[in-house]
Amino acid sequence: MPKRKRGVTREAARRQQVIRKRERRVAEAHEKETMAQRSLERRAEETEERNISRLSVMAHSGEKRKAEETEEKINSRLSDMAQRGQERRAEETEGQRNSRLPAMVQYARERRLNVTEGENHHQIQTFYAAITVLYSLYI
């Protein structure tokens, strides 16, 4: 008969480690939830003036970040946005697609009406390119 070792066996140590990890994850989730709740409460108490100021600061930092962006970063960001758009379109139903496309056409028409003479040619080309893409999606 093998001699029994004293102390914690490997299996018991592994179970304790799993329990500690689970407790840590629960504590982290609770902490995130608490922080989110505090943020919501802070925003609810915020005056409209402070809210506008905060949004202005966020917009300014976004503009600053974009000004400092390299062409490579811009291309990467645009590529990510395009990828998310493709994923979203792949998941949408036929009904959602049919409601989205006329809205895009209407938006393009409104933009076309608002252009100045100097931009007119470029805007018309863009509009017809968009119409071509939309038409190909309907087929």
TrEMBL record:
The residue ranges flagged as biased composition, category Basic and acidic residues, are 25-52, 61-75, 85-97
Q: Where is the region Disordered?
A: 1-103
Domain STPR, chain residue ranges per copy:
54-116
Pfam families named in the record: STPRs (PF21107)
Protein's name in the database: STPR domain-containing protein
Q: Look up and give the organism this protein is from.
A: Araneus ventricosus
